[in-house]
Design brief:
It is a single chain. This protein has 645 residues and is α/β, with parallel strands linked by helices. The strands form 6 sheets. Strands 21-22-23-24-27-26-25 form a 7-stranded mixed barrel. The protein is built from 21 helices and 27 strands. Helix 10 packs across helix 12.
Length: 645
Amino acid sequence: MGLTLTEKILKNHLVDGEFVKGQEIGIRIDQTLTQDATGTMAYLEFEAMGVPRVKTERSVAYIDHNTLQSGFENADDHRFIGSVAKKHGIYFSRPGNGICHQVQLERFGIPGKTLIGSDSHTPTGGGIGMIAIGAGGLDVAVAMGGGAYYITYPKIVKVNLTGKLSPWVAAKDVILEVLRRLSVKGGVGKVIEYTGEGVRTLSVPERATITNMGAELGATTSIFPSDEITREFLKAQGREDVWCELKADGDAVYDEIVDIDLSQIVPMAACPHSPDNVKTCDEIGKLKIDQVCIGSCTNSSFMDMMKVAYILKGKTVHPDVSLSIAPGSKQVLNMLAQNGALADMIDAGARILESACGPCIGMGQSPNSKGVSLRTFNRNFEGRSGTKDGQIYLVSPELAAVSALTGCLTDPRTLGDMPEFKLPEHFVINDNMIEPPAPVEEMDKVEILRGPNIKPFPETAPLDESIECKVSLKVGDNITTDHIMPAGAKILPLRSNIPAISQHCFTVCDEEFPRRAKNMGKSIIVGGSNYGQGSSREHAALAPLYLGIKAVLVKSFARIHRANLINAGILPLTFVNEADYDKISQGDEILLADVRKAIEEDKTQLTVVNKTTGAEIPVLCELTGRTKDIVLAGGLLDYTRESLK
């Protein structure tokens, strides 16, 4: 029996465990990436391990999130990350060099390699044939220290692509179609592997758009084969030497198969407030819009920008619309400036932003109250834009650009004939904004620069013998990490200061939660299904840890957030019977008796006693040998310290 592409790469990197569906395996990590919103904490964790220099083939620290410097905090974090990178063997991508996933694809991605990054959209690397996975910062720190990265051996979904996209229909529409079919929960515990004759019709940047938004499926990652199209892209980047052909065997067996005829896909949009709330342009109609934002790690490639420039050339943005454009990297911005496309955008009335995440993470460009904003981004969670009642639609760059001209949501197929857009034979290559680390013989001379906003990792402790406390918060289904730990220009600068950022924890749902939880001393949170979907930000676990959260009891977890809770030493529990969710209320006092002993004895079913009502509720605590030891130790940092002794 043949192997899937996913299985081939995972088997080549296996260091622990066996290839059994649903079982935990440890894989060797070749590359890591961090960004500045998660990087400061990741490098504090790396320092705490006492490993002098990273042991990966390539680790890169990017500055792309907190680039708005309205106070000292972000600039201090950038200095800290730069100094840690120089000292510990990490490449440093300076502010202005671009968005981590775009630059990683351009300059560092290698087919067949493994990559984990402290950003949930790290699966972008799957567009070049990598196993690229988003993870918490502590997992990335462990990988940099030479440790394995652990995942549940996934189910593998074959998405068989046939046909070819029609003119003005985009790769963004492909992933919106996948989301429409599978939902934001449809990829949990799975890898999405794209195959079929239609793959050959998609460029590497188009493939990367699709794998990027695979994160919204809840998938472990997504991947395309490495073929001649991949080779051409790498050759144009001056990196043909790292190319190799990679594909699934002809007789590979998949757990699920999804067939998509690219020729049948039409322009679509994800409507507020979820990436899977997908409708066609015709279904939405001529919706009046207020704002258009083009960019993000999903749609900021050179080809995306060239299509936008073509649509805007010689035209003027509608007077009722604000249009902003953020090229994904310095390379892209340089090439647009050199070939005149940037001038076409500026002439049309676009506001050009720096090559960074910007509006995608609520860092500026918030729409007007109740404003309708079309964005080429990957998430449209409520309030994520910085405007609580903003109506955010996720669309392709083509749809975004033509709509900016008309003032309403417009099908780009109305543009008529589409010219042929080709990737350049040679990209402009200038890596002068990527700082290499200091040589080994000079690393001891490098001083680590710490600002006053940088606070240490929260205190942890081994798991209690029993947990007896109140429920500090009860929430519903599809709670995102933006609900748990909001982003935006006001909050992101506090990412290196857990005591300060914890004051914003869950305030989107309940403004009193931080004060109430802290006053309780210890408590648990109760939630619905798909709890913790969205970003990989470990702060959504570290802030609750600081506030005294001992356990989270839900119907089901999103993969990365569950791992981050375990890494923080917070007990992840799920209801045996989802209907029991109704048997617990906020403020109830609960008891998990002899929980430490039960976990030590490998018991997976525990009993939560609601002391307020008398109800006895069976719950699952499914921990493997390793994750069991992490929780018992009080978290991954304590576990790793002990294992390194």
